[in-house]
Amino acid sequence: MLDGSTDDAKDDSAGDSAGGIATASDAAPARPPRTVVRWIVVGVLAIAIGVATYVLAVRTITGQTIENAALRGADQAGRAMTVQADSVLGTITITSMVIAMLALLVFAVIRRRSWVGLAALVIIVAGQVVTQVLKSFVLARPELIDAYPQYLQNSLPSGHTTAAMTILFGVLLVTPFRLRALVALVVMPWAIGVGAYTITAKWHRFSDTLAADAVALVIACLVCVIGVRMGYLRITVAEPPGRPIGHRAVVAFWSVLFVVALVGGLALWVLTWLAGPIDASAEYRYFLGALVGSAAGSIATGLVFWWTLQGVTIGDGPAARDDAAR
After folding, report:
1. Residues 228, 74: contact at Cβ < 8 Å?
2. Nearest residue to 294 (alpha-carbon basis) of 272, 262, 320
């Protein structure tokens, strides 16, 4: 077998460490396992990125000027691009999200990791709750520049982007260690496309997608840390025979795309800003910069969460088993 029953056997034989990685040396003093430390550090950094994104993009004249120009530039996108955006965004509905969550839960149950599946569901649902609360009740968009009325309403963070990224995280969480690279190769293009196409459809700005990436990452890391600390999730060193399938090639592929998208987006924005007054051509360049910048943000977010799971598999912890035995 690739991973499922192998991991289960390891979980049963490795012993319990207090919220830590199950190993043969559990007699050692308890301390935060490396994976939990990664989740904590990544979560804190994601909060900082989310706050910085809101302050720079929404609370400054420069940020609003550039992003509103990018929205106007989206009007110049070709019909083919607009149709493709509508098609991708149409994949996210309440029905499709429920189906995705049920599929994750069923897959986790089959692998005898029910609590891991529940954690994935909590990440997806909590991501939407936090996103909608932030967008509707917490964050405000001050009127710092003249703009069309439809540009004055706060749209940060993007609910669609949060949904796509949290589903990606849920899939990575329940997927066997050796198959995560293949999953990342298949699911990440869809998650990245959702964020980028919200800009094409003029539903969101670049900052909205970046803030949504941050929200999704914070929620995922928080749920995982709480799950481990409460004993419902268990981190086990993954030692399947051989290396994970396609790991290096997939990481290299997405890393190269991230660098290209990041450099391209920054170059488009910086050079357009330095060029002077904003005309129709500048608006289109700002739009393209936002598009590839959103892709860069989503790629980085997916890679970072995948990195936090490096070398381990996530299973149900002793508290989950005690609950099941009652």
Report:
1. no
2. 262
Cα separation of 153 and 143, whole Å? 9
Locate 33 and state its tokens: 């396992």
- Alpha-helical (H) ranges within the chain are 4-14, 34-58, 61-73, 79-89, 94-110, 114-133, 159-174, 180-200, 206-229, 247-275, 280-308, 318-325
Contact 258, 303 (CB under 8 A): yes
Residues facing residue 235 across a β-bridge: 21, 314
- H or E element at residue 25: none
Q: What is the DSSP string of 210-268?
A: HHHHHHHHHHHHHHHHHHHHTTSEEEEE---SSPPTTHHHHHHHHHHHHHHHHHHHHHH
With b meaning 16 or more CB within 10 Å and e meaning fewer, what string describes 202-235?
bbbbbbbbbbbbbbbbbbbbbbbbebbeebbbbb
Question: CB-based burial of residue 175 (10 Å sphere; 0-12 exposed, 13-18 middle, 19+ buried)?
Answer: buried
Q: What is the pLDDT of residues 120-173, one digit of tens each?
A: 999 999 999 999 999 999 999 999 998 888 888 899 999 999 999 999 999 999
Could you read off the pLDDT of 177-191 as tens digits, one per residue? 888 999 999 999 999
Beta-carbon neighbour count of residue 108 at 10 Å?
Answer: 25
Q: Hey, where are the domains in the chain? A: 33-321
Instruction: Round to whole Å and give the CA distance between 122 and 124.
Output: 5
Q: What are phi and psi of 120, to 5 degrees?
A: -60, -40
Letter for the amino acid at 143? E
- Give residue-wise pLDDT tens across range 69-96: 999 999 999 889 999 999 999 999 999 9
Tokens (6 digits) for 237: 């060193």
DSSP class of residue 150? Answer: G
* Maximum pairwise Cα distance, the chain: 70
152: tokens are 């004055």
Give the model's pLDDT for residue 212.
98
Check: pTM over 0.85? Answer yes or no.
yes
